[in-house]
């Protein structure tokens, strides 16, 4: 089986190949992202649209992820990319630093679409928001600490071993194996 991963991020494609027993190819398509508080709804709609745009052949997968901060009522959640672009991680840290509840979670939903079905698979990793540390990763990685290290301090392999996207991809892999 071959899967098209709708992303411009080659690192996400490499991560997917580590989890899936399928040929995973990058599909650069800019689907219309709906505005919703529900990652699954965003990813499912994107996967459906991308499958049609790809010609309806190979199944596609779409990933939508977000950082959910407990003390901010789950914000920024699905709006994480926008918040990172407009506020930056340092200002998010400033918003959170004085809160009693700095617990956070990265969540990812991977949606699979093959023309007959759209299925979603969720992964989550818990941690807390800390002052920026580390030079690796991207996005909110420098302020998200999991078991004593920020994602920016972890190497790619260590981060992928615990990542929210990896957990969602592992669930997808189990589901695909059951369908064979």
TrEMBL record:
Q: Does this entry carry the keyword Hydrolase?
A: yes
A molecular function (GO) held by this record is: nucleoside triphosphate diphosphatase activity
Per the record, the coiled-coil ranges are none
Biological process according to GO = nucleoside triphosphate catabolic process
| A GO term from the CC aspect | cytoplasm
Q: What is the protein name for this chain? A: Non-canonical purine NTP pyrophosphatase
Q: Does the keyword Hydrolase apply?
A: yes
Q: Do you know which InterPro entries this protein is assigned to? A: ITPase-like_fam, RdgB/HAM1
Similarity remark = Belongs to the HAM1 NTPase family.
| Gene3D superfamilies, alphabetized | 3.90.950.10
Its keywords, alphabetically, are: Hydrolase
